Amino acid sequence: MARPLTRTGPEHRRVVLAAMAGTTIEWYDFFIYAISAGLVFSTQYFAALGEDALILSFATVGISFFFRPVGAVIAGHLGDRIGRRAMLVLTLLLMGVSTVLIGLVPSAAAIGVTAPVALVLLRIVQGLSAGGEWGGAALLAVEHAPADRRGLFGAFPQIGVPVGLVLANGVLALVAALTTPAQFLAWGWRIPFLLSAVLIVAGLVIRSRVAESPVFEEVRRTRSQAGLPLVQLFRHHWRLVVLGAIVFAANNAVGYMTTGGYVQSYAVRTLHLERSTVLAAVMISAVAWLVSTLAGGWLADRIGRLRVYRIGFVVQLLWLVPFFALLDTANVGLLIVALLLFSVGLGFTYGPQAALYAEMYPARVRYSGAAISYALGAVLGGAFAPTIAEALQSSTGTVYAVCAYLAGMTLLGLIATAALRDHRGIPLDVSGEPAATPLPAERNPGGAA
Question: Which of 417, 187, 162, 160 has the alpha carbon at shortest distance from 313?
């Protein structure tokens, strides 16, 4: 007789806390690099490139994205073979160590070209970690959840992103406020990177106390693991991988205007707003993103994953022009309003993601499918979004060129949702696999329409 696939209330809370805490720490680490790329690295590591320094600095944010699929493949294979929890511990360690080391890399003025090379290599390690982290955290939360609450439970690892953004912006804003501009550029920016060591220890303690996913326990008990999960995934479910990647890319490109540091850089360098003020405004908007992400997950349990996505993409599309118009006023109050409403569409196109991805794939290849869809979407959407935005704005002299780019990405995501089917509540254990294997569309609960 199969074991029950849901846990008690206290175990649910532990799982949700572990998923959220780990992703919060991972994304704190990831975001302090992305934000520092716009505020610091162009002068400390790439100043020799002159006018191209800022663009190249943003490009180093994107380079790591190309290694996310590699991290997703490795973590996906191991996560489908040996379990979700072990991968979460490994990815957290990788991210933490690389982040602390970034805070210790001397400037180019001190060690020359070795400095930017070391920076890029450590950013690549961050990319490997980020590629494997999300799939495990999302599945741990969703596979522990009752069938009618997967959207809400799956939203908790998602809110690790805005919480990480709040922490990253908050710590950077505090350091900026307590130091002079010269001190911040010389050594102040290193403090948030070094603080990651403390957060990593806390995250490892929390994650080590969480039980393995009950779905994976069932897979292991019945010896249903795929021999080569990646091969099975692309042989039978490649269309889902592509569609899932496009859906996330549409969210990611828009989200990386703040998480990738473009808005912060534009507001400080072009609009001449105070650095600490801009960081505080983004921190406030991240709280709104957190709330809308939770709301998106909650609503996905009631009206379906794809309906929430479509609402979010429409809101995202309609707000792009007003967002950039308010941003260009250089008024702090209007900047906050712009960012707050900007966060609504982002939350609705992010909250349902864990539940949607988990229900797209059968248990034996689920970690690989979720992780690779996520990683490819990050490459297509977020990898060079800040770089593209900076290049478009610089070459055209207007942020509305950036607006057009983001509108195009949003429309692609909206179209992709029309090619997917919503399978809210489908069994996630091995008993659901026969229905989830490639069959004609009307019998394929994980398939495209």
Answer: 417
pTM confidence score: 0.81
Concatenating the DSSP letter of every residue in 420-442 gives B---TT---SGGGHHHHSS--GG
Task: Please state, in angstroms and rounded to a whole number, the distance separating the CA atoms of residues 372 and 242.
Answer: 9
Which structure tokens are listed for 34?
């992305």
Contact yes or no for 141/154 (Cβ under 8 A): yes
How far is residue 89 from each of residues 53, 137, 206, 270, measured CA to CA in Å? 36, 10, 10, 41
- Residue in the block written with tokens 């979700």: 84
3-state secondary structure of 67: helix
**CB–CB of 414/340 below 8 Å?**
no
Query: CB–CB of 247/417 below 8 Å?
Result: yes
Integer Cα distance of 91 and 86 in angstroms: 9
For residue 106, the model assigns a pLDDT of 93
Residues in a beta bridge with 78: none
d(CA 27, CA 267): 22
User: Residue with structure tokens 């490649």?
Assistant: 238
In DSSP terms, which residues pair with 405 in a beta bridge? none
**CA 20, CA 17: separation in Å to the nearest integer?**
5
Nearest to 24 by CA among 104, 75, 88: 88
Which ranges of 37-83 would DSSP assign to H, the alpha helix?
Answer: 42-44, 53-63, 68-81
DSSP SS3 for 227: coil
Q: What is the pLDDT of residues 242-276, one digit of tens each?
A: 999 999 999 999 998 887 778 988 898 889 998 87
What does the alpha-carbon distance between residue 419 and residue 171 come to, in Å, rounded to a whole number?
41
What is the per-residue pLDDT across 181-235, written as a single tens digit (0 to 9) for each?
A: 889 888 999 999 999 888 888 878 877 777 777 777 776 776 666 567 788 888 8
Structure tokens at 296: 């998106």
Cα separation, 59 vs 57, in Å, equals 5
The pLDDT confidence band at residue 1, using thresholds 50, 70 and 90, is very low
> Do the beta carbons of residue 151 and residue 351 sit within 8 Å?
yes
Work out the angle between the directed axes of helices 332-348 and 238-259 (0-180°, nearest 10). 170
Instruction: Say if residue 431's pLDDT is above 70.
Output: no
Q: Using CA atoms in the order 370, 30, 310, 322, what is the torsion angle rounded to 10 degrees? A: -170
